[in-house]
Design a protein that fits this description.
By secondary structure, this protein is of the alpha/beta class. The chain has a domain of 94 residues: P-loop containing nucleotide triphosphate hydrolases (Rossmann fold, 3-Layer(aba) Sandwich), CATH 3.40.50. It contains 4 helices and 6 strands, in the order βαβαββαββα. It has a 4-stranded parallel β-sheet with strand order 2-5-1-6, sandwiched between helices. Strands 3-4 form a two-stranded antiparallel sheet. Helix 1 packs across helix 4. It starts with a strand and ends in a 6-residue tail after the last helix.
C-alpha cells in the first residue's frame, strides 16, 4: 500500500470547512477509499481531572485511549507531535484531510485549499483530493 495523500483545508471559522469536508469524505468512502480527518481546534478536548487526562498528566502514559461502548467511538489522546501523528495516519489511510493547522505543519501536504478562494466548493475539494492522490500514486476507484 502506498502512503496516503494529505490535503489541507484552511479558512476562517464559519466558512464551510467542516460541511465541505463531510460531503467529500462521503464521496471518497463511496469510492472505497480509507479516509481520515485530522482537525485542529482551540477548544478543550481532554478535561483536566478526568480519566484520560489523568493517565497522561499524572501517570505519564504515552497515550490514553477512550473507547465508548463496544467500540462505536474511540478517542486517542497522546503526547505525539502533529508530524508523528500525520505520518502514522499516512501508513493506514488512503486520504488524510487536515482541517486547519494553517500554521505549523512541518510536513507539506500534497495540496492546500482555502475557503477564502473564490472557487472553493465540494467539487473543488474532491478534484483537489483526486489530483493529489494520483500524483502520490494512491489508487482511486472513481
Amino acid at each position: 500500500m502506498k502512503a496516503g495523500c494529505i490535503v489541507q483545508v484552511v479558512g476562517p471559522s464559519g466558512t464551510g470547512k467542516t460541511t465541505t469536508i463531510v460531503k467529500v469524505v462521503k464521496t471518497l468512502k463511496g469510492m472505497g477509499l480509507r479516509v481520515a480527518v485530522l482537525k485542529h481546534t482551540h477548544h478543550d478536548i481532554d478535561v483536566p481531572g478526568k480519566d484520560s487526562w489523568r493517565f497522561l498528566e499524572e501517570g505519564g502514559a504515552d497515550a490514553s485511549i477512550v473507547v465508548k461502548g463496544s467500540g462505536e467511538r474511540v478517542a486517542v489522546f497522546t503526547r505525539l507531535d502533529f508530524s508523528s501523528i500525520l505520518e502514522a495516519l499516512r501508513l493506514s489511510f488512503d486520504v488524510i484531510i487536515v482541517e486547519g493547522f494553517s500554521r505549523g505543519m512541518s510536513q507539506k501536504p500534497e495540496a492546500t485549499l482555502s475557503t477564502t478562494d473564490p472557487d472553493f466548493s465540494d467539487a473543488k475539494l474532491l478534484e483537489t483530493v483526486v489530483r493529489a492522490c494520483r500524483v502520490r500514486g494512491v489508487e482511486l476507484n472513481s
